[in-house]
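Pinned message: reference record for Cobalt ABC transporter permease
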Amino acid sequence: MHVPDGFFNAVTSLSAGVVAAAGVAVCLRGARRELDDRTAPMAGLVAAFIFAVQMLNFPVAAGTSGHLLGGALAAILVGPSTGVLCMAVVLLVQGVFFADGGLTALGVNITIMGIVTVLVGWGVFRLVTGLARGRVVVAAFLAALVSVPASALVFTLLFWIGGTAPIEVGAVAAAMGGVHVLIGIGEAVITALTVSAVLAVRPDLVYGARGLTKPLVLRGAEGATTTTTTTAGEERPVAPRGTLKPFLLGGVGLTLVLAGAVSFFASPEPDGLEAVAQNHGFIDQESDHLFGHWALADYGDVGGIPVGVAGIIGVGLVLLIGGVVAHAARSRDKTKV
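Predicted structure (tokens):
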């Protein structure tokens, strides 16, 4: 749902940019409560993973595809403030290096794809876990499911207010909401599977599960003890501190496989926003991207670079920028867990 240049007038683009900048500034401070020296590398990995999975468009209807937005996933794994930072880094790299999302629309994209999806996703997640304590995976599924159409409807509202073409807001809202509910189902499945996988391996690294898990000490016949944690009624092993590197290396390896190999099989059909814009007559408002001639534009298509190679380059850029941002924002309290 990357908004291109030309869809919004200057006032709306500027206003959204101010909102996005203010949101990122607030989240830079908020991330200090969520990150420390141990968990900051996780933020870079989450951002890179979202970048890679966003390349994997999946079909949702005849002639339409969708892809992960990732706001709910980021919030659950690394916290809402850090989640916004992750999304901002992903959208910045996509817009500048890959011409995916307009430069004048960067504020709009961070607002609707980053801030809205994180806030709505995190709100639904907290509501569900509050009502059904410990049901982390179910809460993750519902959070992701709701966050996508919420983002689509906010886009429709903004376009009705400051778009460069008149629309029948009811019809466009129905079209955007309908197709993005279908995309939201795919997002929910991806989010739930990812959160479940991390919970199974390193439950201590799932920010949303903090406070929902409790240690359980099992004592053997000879006095030996084994510590586990319970989440959603299941016992899971707690990985000891100091073993973060294998998890990070495995995560980076998986991310590179997704971006470097699986991306070749992504659906070529237009995504939900593009399809709705075509059907409702405002696709012609799109203007050329300033960096649309760069070799990496359109994920290498402009420069003749294989999409997998472009994906690997993008993962490296997001890892680098996301890691720097996370380490700059992290808490310096060495005693924090």
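Pinned by admin. Summary line: The first helix runs from residue 10 to 30.
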